[in-house]
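Protein modeling request. Please complete all fields; requests missing the sequence field cannot be processed.
Requester role: graduate student
Desired output: 3D structure, token encoding
Chains: 1
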Amino acid sequence: AVGLSEREFATGKEFCETWDALANSSAFQAFESPWPSNGDGAHREVAAWLDRWQPQLAQLRTATELKWYLPLVNPAPELPLHTDALPAATAVRHYAWILRGSAFRAAARGDLDRAVAELITAFRFGRQLRGGGTLQNLVSIQINGLAGQAASQLIQSYELGEPQLQMLAAALADEDFSQLTAPRSLRGERYQ
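Delivered output (192 residues):
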């Protein structure tokens, strides 16, 4: 069967509502830059939110590995089609922000493999939006910019190993991130 149970729908609604509250609070700074080494202490509210929603975040990660199609059905012909496309594209942008915060948290905990994987997942979300229309393409560009900026921040703030750099380079191979396709150039003197 295709669809959601009432419980799954209620959980999804709560996920979105709690994200909206978090995104509109001062705690949002945790999604903007790498966390300090005591990240969970510095960003308690965000850490608790990420812990609470791990099952749903795992579903989001899995979704980026699937080929999917989101048909836009405009039940009200008097409304422009973008009124259907915008909420879906906006949700994907929110997921990219969430993955970005999760990557910063993982890096602060010393789990650089997880941090890189979270950013690669965000890039995949951006790719999945591509080609659906102007609105989706613009949001795709924004998502890739968010993930690319976070990748640059990680490279500058942490000593990523060669396998992690290779994973990022492979994820960015078909993107226009010339500043990241040779990640060693961002790492600074400590790598020379």
